[in-house]
Every structure is written in structure tokens, then in C-alpha cells.
Amino acid sequence: MHWTSRTYSSCVKDHCISPFPPPLSLATTILLSASMKKTDDDNKKVVAEIMARCFVPRLITTTSWEGFHFVGQEIRITEGMDCYGAVVWPSALVLCYFLETNVKHYNMVDKNVIEIGAGTGLVSIVASLLGAHVIATDLPELLGNLQYNISRNTKMKCKHLPQVKELSWGIALDENFPRSSNNFDYILAADVVYAHPFLEELLITFDHLCKETTVILWVMKFRLEKENNFVDRFKELFDLEEISSFPSLNIKLYKAMKKTRRSA
């Protein structure tokens, strides 16, 4: 007999089969447990490798900074503790690690890249060190520290000097980033979705900056239901693929591309 979902539902309704799957055998249970343990161990190993890229200065200096090792460089980042956007969050480390360790599949050399919500600039710095043409963007009040970090870590080290530009999500997009001149190969975003009231503007910004060939690499930490709702809204405009998951950090890394008329 060919079992369709309709046949199965009818049988369940008529009580001829149980609506619950049969219990797993002991051997299957052991195999699943071992697989889950291996996945969990692999996750913890990668997370440990990512976090090992951070270091603190041995000497106290007049300007406080955090250190990171990526692309064979020592990157020094000055943070601003009075603003969420001026702090290096774990999502940024995950994205930097991904860019560095996946250069064969996501080659940044000579690619046009824009980072939205660049914050301290760490992701933009790593993309620049990997050879990309980078535009790092954020709110006007964050640009001073962003420019400082990018300049001190890329000068005389990068193939292309990165730019820093203001970008307030959903505001003056046609004026500052006209669609006709948007030719981005990649959009990078780390931890841009959290408890702020501009999620719709963020979605509009993603859509405005994207062409059909643009690849979005987006890392997100899940904290509240708002994050799940945003992902659902995002899927209406973009084809979304989960590349990596880090359960111990509650972080996921996504690849997305704009939906074409055929796939919409």
C-alpha cells in the first residue's frame, strides 16, 4: 500500500494506527545519542577555537583595547562601553572566523563588500585584510570610533583601503546608496537583530542594497521571540540557508540571496 499523508491521517482518525511513531530501538537510541554528543563536542571545539582568537593586552595603556588574531594579523579594537554598537559581540567573532576559514568558497579578493551595523569594525577589518573593497557602515555617532579602528588596523596592510560611511537603516537610502550604483557581491551583518524598534527598516535596507547576485552572510544571536519573527519576515524576500549553528552561543550563521520572480 502506498502511504500518503491523507491515508495516514485517515487511519489515525479511524484509530487503525497509532498517531505516535513506534519507540526507537536501543541500538538506534545509542547511535543517535553518540551522534548528538559528537555534534555537541564539535560545536564546543569550534567555539573554543573562535574565542581563542581574542587576547587582552599584557601592559596597561592610556587607551583600553581588545586584541584579536585573524588573517595572520594582530587586530587591536577600541570599544565604547556606553553603546551596544561599539562593543565586539560573539557574533562578530563567528563571522570573522567563517570568512577566514572559508576563503575557497567565499573569496573576498577584489569583491565589493558592505557591512551594515559595523560597530567596532572588526568584521570589516577582516574582510579588508582578505582583499575586499569594503564599505563599513553604521550610525553617525559610531563613525568616529569605527574609522579609528579601521584606520589603525588596515593602513599599509590591505589591498584596498576600506571606506567608512553613515547608514541609518531605512533613511535616505536612495540618496546615499542609489540602487543604480549598488553592486555589492557580499553584504555582511553580525548581530544586527535584537530588541530595537527598527527591524522593518533593517529589512528594507537589506532589500535596497541587494541585487539578485548579492550574497548576504548574516550571523545572529537568538535572544527573544522578535528574532524568530524577523527571520520569518526575512524569508518572504530572501532565500535563506543556515550554514552553521553554535548552540552553546545560541548563534546561527546564515547565507541569503534575494528571491527571484521564479522562486518567489
Automatic annotation (TrEMBL):
Name of the protein in its database record: Protein-lysine methyltransferase METTL21E-like isoform X1
Coiled coil ranges: none
PANTHER family attached to this UniProt entry: HEPATOCELLULAR CARCINOMA-ASSOCIATED ANTIGEN, METHYLTRANSFERASE-LIKE PROTEIN 21E PSEUDOGENE-RELATED
Keywords annotated in UniProt: Acetylation, Methyltransferase, S-adenosyl-L-methionine, Transferase
